[in-house]
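Researcher: Here's the sequence for the chain we discussed earlier.
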Amino acid sequence: MTHSDDQAAAPDFPASRDSAFLSRRVDVPRIMLRPSVALHLVLATAIGLAVAALYTTLAPWLGAVRAVPPTLAFLAVCGLAAAAWRREQPAVIEIGPDSIAACSRHGARIAQGRLTGASQWGTSLLALDLRSGKRRATVLIAADSLDADAFRALAVRARCAAGR
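Model: Thanks. This is the structure I predict for it:
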């Protein structure tokens, strides 16, 4: 085998692959998402309220000092759950002709399928309900995670799916 045969057999960069997302099709438009400040603030507020509620519930029974360790343990579990939630948030939305796919920051496909009539939209949050066969997934997209035109385009798709 000569050097030229070796290059012809294995191209360095296949035309149908993207270095960031190896499973991505080139012909499908994609929208990059930023982490949503609003969703993070809502999550932090909910965790704070839950921790305060746990402490105020345990303090009369156990005493103020003895209620602190379980409260801190609960706070740690909530923090770990919030970190796992953040890792699994979509970073890219791929809009195909008949389906939508959401991919994480690491390129893993989180959800894929057709929009269903259960999708909800508002001025600051979209809840896209995706169905692929028997599998269903809901993807939350906050308005501050993408530009206004892309948010509007996704909202229009959700409204069209609701009208089916």
